[in-house]
Amino acid sequence: MADKRIKQTPSNTDRSIIEIIGMHKWYGEFHVLSDINLRVQEKERIVICGPSGSGKSTLIRCINRLEEHQRGRIIVDGIELTNDIKNIEKVRAEVGMVFQHFNLFPHLTIMENLTLGPIWVRKMPKQEAEETAMMYLKKVKIAEQAKKYPGQLSGGQQQRVAIARSLCMSPRVMLFDEPTSALDPEMIKEVLDVMIDLAREGMTMLVVSHEMGFAKSVADRVLFMDDGQIVEENNPHDFFDNPRHERTKLFLSQIL
Amino acid sequence: MNQQNSTATREHLKPPVTEIGVLGWIRQNLFNSWFNSLLTVLALYGLYMTIPPLFKWAFADSLWFGSPDACRDIDGACWSIIPSNARFIFFGFFPEDQQWRPLTAMILLFVLVFHTQNRRSWNRALFPIWTCGLVVMGWLMHGGLGLPVVETAKWSGLPLTLMLSLFGMVGAYPLGILLALGRRSKLPAIHSLCVLYIELIRGVPLISMLFMSSIMFPLFLPEGINIDKVLRAQVAIILFTAAYIAEVVRGGLQAIPKGQYEAADSLGLNYGQAMRLIILPQALKIVIPPSVGILISAFKDTSLVVIIALYDVLKTTKVTLSNPEWMGFSSEAYLSLALLYFIFCYAMSSYSRKLEKALHTGH
Q1: What are the residues facing A223 on neighbouring strands?
Q2: pLDDT of residue B265
Q3: CB contact under 8 A, A106 and B363
Q4: Which letter does DSSP use for residue B144 in this model?
Q5: Do B268 and A85 make contact, defined as CB atoms within 8 angstroms?
Q6: Chain A interface residues facing chain B, Cβ-Cβ under 8 Å?
Q7: Least CB-CB distance to A150: which of B262, B265, B363?
Q8: Out of A99, A152, A169, whose CB is closest to B259?
Q9: How many CA atoms within 13 Å lie on the side-chain side of B329?
Q10: Per residue in B45-90, pLDDT tens?
């Protein structure tokens, strides 16, 4: 390990909720993620950025095993991700995920989208699930749309519903995979506002995003990835003002 | 000012009479070029030559009730072949004094189907209702418990056709879904088995499946064991239709975006839940039109059971026509039968269109 890059976060092992140790992933021959080490503390907010194809989406998709890693270990909330499908389902129930293209279920109403997980995975009674769903819909300011279908909502509204759907499972961690990059410019703010509220309330969040304003205002750490590696990792202040690596500097100069 | 003026005149302007209304439509669609005008005239002449004589034959000169001798004196259609032989055509060899039983069973079946077509009745009560209905229908057809037993060999006519097709569809659909899921499975054994099954079955005609079930299959059974012939035909129809349903459903599964699978997974749903709650409802909705196509052709294909000596409604009609008294009225008999098949098929297809509309959620 020539590259002594990472400033280790103060290690308080019992508080860390995600632990990734020496993780590698290949797509066929292509080495997408190489030697990823990451420890996420509870209530930490992490923004991951980097050029396209750098592996940032793949990294967070490994955390709830939408992608499989081939070497190293990933431990989420004390459960190690292996081929054991029961463990995977347990982890997925604890980890919320918000996608670039929302991925709401088009054949179900907004309310049904929200209550599906709690009812079938958490075995919550229907009425309780609906009350919880209503609470989160109010929180994302969209309660009046509960009876509509996703196809009748705008992109920004759909993404807020998707966030509420994840929250209904009372997740311990939320993963955001480029949540605003499929949205029209005027809708980005309404989604970011919801995410900022969530961050203020102390949700543990990993966000893949190019919204640098969001990173500056809420992130505890910013990770810069390139070519399947975590190249640089710092608090937002130092990250934006004093990037250490050439690749980070180049990237920041291109997007800021 | 100028602009206001022009809008005022625009409101008063109407399109030319030749462009709108019936006249406009005729002009635009039937006489918009010399070639189309020629085609229109030819088509009108064709209709004039065929419709009046057909009407004369089918209605004006026809006989609806009466003996075959009366029929031979008229020029028109002899529809009376149907009412005069209705008992045999509809119930075949079912003992005559017991024919109220298949009739009741069919009425019961129609009531059940009618109840089920309403989406509001799709609830937990549906399964017990059907189970009770089927038990009663089975008892009516087969007998026992106070009713004289009627062998399945004597089940014939319309009840046989309806039974083979309804249970064929009801049995084939779930099996087809399982095969489609199996074909997409990552487990090599399940995947190859499903591919083998689907390709094998689709590679043979239904007739040969029916032959196999009725002639070859019993050869493999130990002596003394005899599986009912109607049941064997039924199983052959189910197995055959399922292979086609499977491929249609697989097409639907492939049309569901990957994001839907990922969203279902990331909520922590297991495979069964994800399929049942998220993927299949969407996939099956997409494949309503092609599956109804398959179900309709399966319905019509039940008439092939005639080759293993089962008397469905087509065969009973043929038998009627071979009666010397009624020989020569085959147009009337087959047209009536065609109408019967058409009614059932049309009902299926219009119901499927209704269902498509009802399930559309605007995306």
Answers
A1: A48, A233
A2: 94
A3: yes
A4: B
A5: no
A6: 64, 66, 85, 89-90, 92-97, 99, 101, 103-107, 116-117, 120-121, 149-152, 165-166, 169
A7: B363
A8: A99
A9: 35
A10: 999 999 998 998 888 888 888 888 888 888 888 888 888 888 898 9
Which residues in chain A are closer than 8 Å to B286, comparing Cβ atoms?
A: none
Taking the C-alpha atoms of residue B350 and residue B266, their distance in angstroms, rounded to an integer, is: 38
* Whether residue B19 has pLDDT greater than 70: no
Residue B27: CB atoms within 10 A of its CB come to: 13
Nearest to A226 by CA among A20, A32, A65: A32
Measured between beta carbons, the chain A residues lying within 8 angstroms of B277 are 116, 120
Residues of B with CB under 8 A from a CB of A: 257, 259-260, 262-270, 273, 277-278, 281-282, 285, 359, 361-363
Q: Rounded to an integer, what distance in angstroms lies between the CA atom of residue B346 and that of residue B119? A: 19
Judged by average pLDDT, the poorest of A30-44, A160-174, B18-32, B345-359 is B18-32
Q: Could you tell me which residues come within 8 angstroms of residue B338 by beta carbon, excluding any fewer than 6 positions away?
A: none
Q: Number of A:B CB contacts under 8 A?
A: 71
| Cβ-contact A190, A29 below 8 angstroms | no
Cα angle, residue B160 at apex, residues B154 and B161 outer, rounded to 5°: 150
Mean pLDDT in residue range A135-160: 93
Closest Cα of chain A to B197: distance in Å?
A: 29
- ipTM higher than the 0.85 cut: yes
User: Searching chain A, which residue's CA lies closest to the CA of residue B280?
Assistant: A107
B127-168: pLDDT as tens digits: 999 999 999 998 998 888 888 888 888 888 999 999 999 999
Q: CA dist B318 to A73, A250, B69, B274, B309, Å?
A: 74, 85, 20, 50, 13
Contact A165 B359 (CB under 8 A): no
- Give B267's contacts in chain A (Cβ within 8 Å): 92-93, 116-117, 121, 165, 169
Q: What is the pLDDT of residue B44?
A: 94
Among A111, A126, A113, A125, smallest CA distance to B278 is for: A113
Helix pair angle (B158-183, B229-255), 10° resolution: 40
Q: How far apart are CA B195 and CA B111, in angstroms?
A: 38
Mode of pairing for the β-strands spanning A221-226 and A45-49: parallel
> In terms of CA atoms, which chain A residue is nearest residue B259?
A103
Measured CA to CA, the distance from residue A85 to residue B348 in angstroms comes to 42
Does B268 sit within 8 Å of A121, measured CB to CB?
yes
B195: left (phi over 0), alpha (psi -120 to 50) or beta: alpha
Residues contacting B326, CB < 8 A, separation 6+: B68, B81, B84, B85, B320, B333
Cα separation, A187 vs A176, in Å, equals: 16
- Tell how strand A71-76 and strand A16-27 pair up: antiparallel
Collapsed DSSP state (helix, strand, coil) of residue A116: helix
pTM equals: 0.84
* pLDDT value for B339: 94
pLDDT of residue B59: 86
Chain B residues touching residue A151 (CB < 8 angstroms): 361-363
Cβ distance A151 to B363 less than 8 Å, yes or no, reads yes
